[in-house]
Write a structure and sequence with these properties.
Radius of gyration: 26 Å
Bound molecules: glucose-6-phosphate
Mean pLDDT: 97
Oligomer: single chain
Number of strands: 13
Shape: globular
Strand order of the largest sheet: 1-2-13-12-10-11
Largest sheet: 6 strands, mixed
Length: about 550
């Protein structure tokens, strides 16, 4: 495939960038009173204002030409119709089938995947209902009070983020815990106050070979058996979410307690599959279906809307605009909702594991930048921390502000204050403050001319810093489903423009491979010589210290 810069649509965009790069958004708003109406849209219950971006009415059509030259519309069809879009692993990526709420069959490798999906959903429905109603009992005959999801990466971040986001819909007296880190402190702390007789463990691992998850799962089983004694009790306290039946049964979990999924479900796209079991238990299966419905609403929009009116496409093209023309290397996610506090972490995996690549789909090296660094914290906390750099730093940092109009906890003036802060930040980032305005303000406050001169370089803001604002009516399962699917598709569109495979993650393999060797050396307790001087030196420091402790 040809490089981005050699596409016919590239040069007109490069010329357009030269024209627009010096323009201030304030002037664009002043010139065009219809700018907000022209550059905002609604889809699947979400409202997107993208008018505070460094674009004119000509920019999007030029970016869409790039997408057309990359055959985006057909690539979207390929994604949704089970083509082998993950070319390095020779797989489809059918997360959209997992939330297909229509009767449409979805074929891959000559087979309709929908009957299997519906079978597992029904198994999840029965199980989650049994746990929630107290019908599923532990070995002492008591109902389950605590669920511990043991998984990492895609088998942790999605369900954990959703469970936190939907906290208001969670069943009281059923607590969810998530253990991911191989650091023994994580599982130790999680189990500290739990009662083995009323605790259910969900072992979530697509491969069921992941070192961290298996270590935590074995520790959990040992902890459980210390009290339960009889191995037969494992059946009512351990269930598995996996594609690997043999490994699940080898661990000692009964096949009937296994919830299957398939190799065409990528880890970071798996919360819609059996990996969502902890969510279904927490909020109930009907709410879980609403989450699927919200994502399906966004899938339908993504599949059918014109590229110029397509929310994930627009957001992706804006990212391409900033990364490849303005040289932006990072993207801030600012959810103004405490329940969305894990959303930036979730998006870090979704976007950085998907588009943090330097090889094109055919294996050749890319000659352009790809996925930016994604980061963020919920507002308004970020304002009192890193927003300084976003307003006055030397880097251009495009940002997404996400806020529900209605609060689930309408306490006093809190929500109007939250909304005001969110909107004011996007205004400040766009507007900035020039020397004249600052001088007037300072004069009004009684400052002398020399003081104004001394401080004006510090107290002015250049503005012209781009933001998107996403309004949700409120945080509920359906709007959350649409929001997550929006970002999944945004990431996919970016990958099509950059001609990279967003569904593999070879970059995580080398560290895992080396960790096996280093583990052997640390456990052997002998001095290491096989590495570079730094790695040998570090291992030897650790071994020496451990040997003195032994
Ligand atoms: C996600 C990645 C990765 C994966 C974890 C856990 O897309 O593949 O984050 O989810 O490594 O893998 P298992 O589910 O196989 O334990």
């Amino acid at each position: 495939m040809s490089d981005l810069m050699s596409l016919n649509a590239w040069q007109p965009l490069a010329d357009h960038y030269q024209q627009i790069k010096g323009e201030h958004m304030l002037d664009m708003f002043a010139r065009d009173t219809g700018r907000f109406d022209n550059l905002s849209m609604q889809a699947a219950g979400l409202f997107l204002d993208y008018s505070k971006n460094r674009i004119s009415n000509d920019t999007l059509p030029l970016l869409v030409n790039l997408a057309k030259e990359r055959d985006l519309q057909n690539r979207i069809s390929d994604l949704m119709s089970g083509e082998t879009v993950n070319n390095t692993e020779q797989r489809a990526a059918l997360h959209t089938a997992l939330r297909n709420r229509s009767d449409r069959p979805v074929m891959t490798a000559g087979q309709d995947v929908m009957p299997d999906i519906r079978r597992v959903l029904s198994q999840m429905s029965t199980f989650s209902e049994a746990v929630r109603s107290g019908q599923w009992q532990g070995y002492s005959g008591e109902a389950i009070t605590d669920i511990v999801n043991i998984g990492i990466g895609g088998s942790d971040l999605g369900p954990q983020m959703v469970t936190e986001a939907l906290h208001r819909y969670c069943k009281p007296n059923l607590s969810l815990h998530f253990v991911s880190n191989v650091d023994g402190s994580h599982i130790t702390k999680a189990l500290q106050n739990l009662n083995p007789a009323t605790t259910l463990f969900i072992i979530a691992s697509k491969t069921f070979t992941t070192q961290e998850t298996l270590a935590n799962a074995h520790t959990a089983r040992d902890w459980f058996l210390e009290s339960a004694k009889d191995k037969q009790h494992v059946a009512s306290h351990f269930v598995a979410l996996s594609t690997n039946r043999d490994a699940v049964t080898a661990f000692g979990i009964d096949e009937s307690n296994m919830f299957a999924f398939w190799d065409w479900v990528g880890g970071r796209y798996s919360l819609w599959s059996a990996i969502g079991l902890s969510v279904a238990c927490a909020v109930g299966f009907e709410r879980f279906e609403e989450l699927l419905q919200g994502a399906h609403d966004m899938d339908l929009h993504f599949q059918s809307a014109k590229l110029t009116e397509n929310m994930p496409v627009i957001m992706a093209l804006l990212t391409v605009w900033y990364v490849n023309f303005f040289g932006a290397v990072s993207h801030l996610i600012a959810p103004y909702d405490q329940y969305l506090h894990r959303f930036p972490a979730y998006l870090q995996q979704l976007t950085m594991e998907s588009n943090g690549k330097s090889a094109m789909r055919d294996g050749g090296a890319v000659a352009h930048n790809t996925g930016p660094i994604v980061w963020g914290e919920p507002g308004t906390n970020g304002q009192h921390a890193y927003f300084q750099l976003v307003h006055q730093g030397t880097h251009l940092i495009p940002a997404d502000f996400i806020v529900p109009v209605e609060s689930l906890n309408p306490v006093g003036r809190h929500h109007p204050m939250l909304l005001a802060n969110c909107i004011a930040q996007t205004e400040a980032l766009m507007r900035g403050k020039d020397r004249e305005t600052l001088a007037m303000e300072m004069k009004d406050q009684g400052a002398s001319d020399s003081e104004i001169k001394r401080l004006s370089g510090h107290k002015t803001f250049s503005g012209n810093r781009p933001t998107n604002t996403l309004l949700l009516e409120t945080i509920d399962p359906r709007s959350l489903g649409a929001l997550i699917a929006l970002y999944e598709h945004k990431v996919f569109v970016e990958s099509v423009i950059w001609d990279i495979n967003p569904f593999d993650q070879w970059g995580v393999e080398l560290g895992k491979q080396l960790a096996k060797q280093v583990l052997q050396e640390i456990e052997a307790g002998k001095s290491a010589t096989a590495h570079d001087a730094s790695t040998n030196g570090l291992i030897n420091c650790i071994v020496k210290r451990r040997n003195t402790l032994a």
